[in-house]
Description:
Elements: E1 9-10, E2 16-20, E3 23-27, E4 32-36, E5 41-46, E6 49-54, H1 59-80, E7 83-90, E8 95-99, E9 102-106, E10 113-116, E11 121-127, E12 130-135, H2 138-149, E13 161-164
Antiparallel strand pairs: 1-6, 2-3, 3-4, 5-6, 7-12, 7-13, 8-9, 9-10, 11-12
Amino acid sequence: MSRIGKKPVSFGSGVKVKTENGAVYVEGSKGKLNFVLPEGIKVDCADKSIVVTRDSEDKKFRALHGLTRAIINNMVIGVSRGFEKELEIVGVGYKAQVQGKKLSLQIGRSHPVEYPIPQGITIETPKPTSLVIKGCDKQFVGEVAAEIRAYYPPEPYKGKGIRYKGEYVRKKAGKTGAK
Length: 179
């Protein structure tokens, strides 16, 4: 039995969960999410807890059992508390600002990079060199953060670029240090 898969997912009073037609629908104060269940996986929703079960002991179904439970748990957490990722911008004159539904990045190019903010995601800039990406879908928040970071990943010589908060960038010695 899967250690993660056999744990029930508990949820509070502000979260509504329903299962229909092989899908799980979760609704809360932060938004609505749904997940289509893979074949061979079943979900039972009792009072304030969700239990995930599988039909077979095949390796494929054992893997999907824990995965499905983890996704449903992230959905419950997302609609009740939400998720956030923080990015830092390192470099002289590099900054970011939100302009309506677009994120404008000044990252050393001749023009500002415009990133359209997707629906369901909010981006805040508490300081010009830091970004906070918030949303209820954990995967989507991480994907948006990765897309923004991909515009200028941290480079190993000066450390300039966009990085996750707390990310360590190992610096290399340049030409002068290679003697």
